[in-house]
Design goal:
Elements lengths: L8 H27 L24 H29 L7 H23 L4 H25 L4 E4 L3 H26 L22 H28 L4 H26 L4 H24 L1 E3 L17
Antiparallel strand pairs: 1-2
Helix pairs in contact: 1-2, 1-4, 1-8, 2-3, 3-4, 4-5, 4-8, 5-6, 5-8, 6-7, 7-8
């Protein structure tokens, strides 16, 4: 029987990074589908039409855009399968649960996408479709970052700062959920015919009210991030945490600027798409901050007794 090849940590890390990029790309291309009104370019699922699995000339540009987004799922699947195989054939047993979850998330997303099409782009299923993708972006980001180190060690800071990071991640989740409600209550339904539905009628919320709630949550998030950054510098926390918090704050501020500009310019398509990319980047950098709380497996815990620290030789 031939011996199956083993994969080096470098290969695992590269595949993990490709997985992050693929998951982020499918969010952005999904935004293109929605913003061009191509959500029902393929009017059924899993086929593109009742008679064909692929788009037809009669479906024109909308069909090509929607079908192109569906094809990207196969690319994502190939990358996820390659990553699972590489992880299982490497020494990194600790990465197996994350790799398996990243792979299992793909059929779940495909099923939600199918329900979204079959329900005529119900705004609630569209929102769930986006949020599951965001969870997969966060999951694959942590997987990638963990693959670059030998294992997960102890927390590098005291418990109050660990809790603050957890609270910041929770508020980020709230911001993203409110963002999907704002989008679902706005003018970009994902289908040309549905764009005639009065704004706010699709989800039942007043767009002005949910936009203000979303903005308030963003202000809270930025405030928490600034507080965390100040605390990390004041306590001389490890550089990886300070850099993660600093970079996250920059992404949040840029995302906030795009959000306010798109709101006051009545949601131009280009800015809405840029804002969706910003949501992906915010997720990535928040996941990086959560990852940075714990050091590599070789690091000593913050409060380890001096007797437990090996003497330098």
């Amino acid at each position: 029987m031939p011996v199956l090849p083993t994969f080096s940590p470098v290969v695992v890390t590269r595949l993990a990074l490709a997985n992050v990029v693929a998951n982020g790309a499918i969010v952005v291309t999904g935004g293109v589908v929605r913003l061009t009104g191509s959500g029902l370019g393929c009017p059924t699922w899993p086929r593109c039409t009742e008679e064909s699995f692929v788009t037809t000339p009669e479906m024109a540009g909308h069909g090509l855009i929607e079908f192109g987004n569906r094809l990207l799922t196969f690319v994502l699947t190939a990358v996820a399968v390659a990553l699972v195989v590489a992880v299982w054939r490497s020494s990194r047993r600790d990465l197996r649960p994350l790799a398996a979850l990243a792979f299992l998330g793909i059929p779940v997303q495909a099923a939600i996408g199918g329900v979204t099409v079959l329900t005529g782009l119900n705004p609630w299923t569209v929102a769930v479709h986006f949020l599951v993708s965001i969870v997969l972006v966060a999951l694959t980001t942590v997987l990638w970052l963990r693959s670059r180190e030998p294992g997960v060690g102890r927390p590098l800071v005291r418990r109050p700062l660990v809790l603050l990071v957890g609270g910041l991640a929770a508020v980020t989740a709230v911001v993203l959920v409110l963002g999907t409600i704002v989008t679902g209550s706005g003018p970009h339904s994902g289908d040309v015919d549905e764009n005639d539905v009065p704004t706010g009628d699709r989800m039942g919320f007043d767009p002005e009210t949910v936009s203000r709630l979303h903005a308030d949550a963003v202000f809270l998030l930025v405030g928490l991030t600034i507080a965390l950054l100040v605390a990390l510098y004041a306590t001389d926390a490890p550089g990886r945490m300070r850099r993660a918090a600093r970079d996250l704050l920059v992404v949040q501020l840029l995302q906030g600027v795009v959000g306010f500009v798109q709101y006051f310019t009545h949601l131009p398509v280009a800015l809405v798409l840029l804002h969706m990319l910003g949501a992906v980047l915010t997720t990535v950098y928040t996941a990086r901050l959560v990852w940075s709380v714990r050091g590599p497996a070789s690091d000593q815990p913050l409060d380890a007794p001096a007797a437990q620290v090996p003497a330098a030789r």
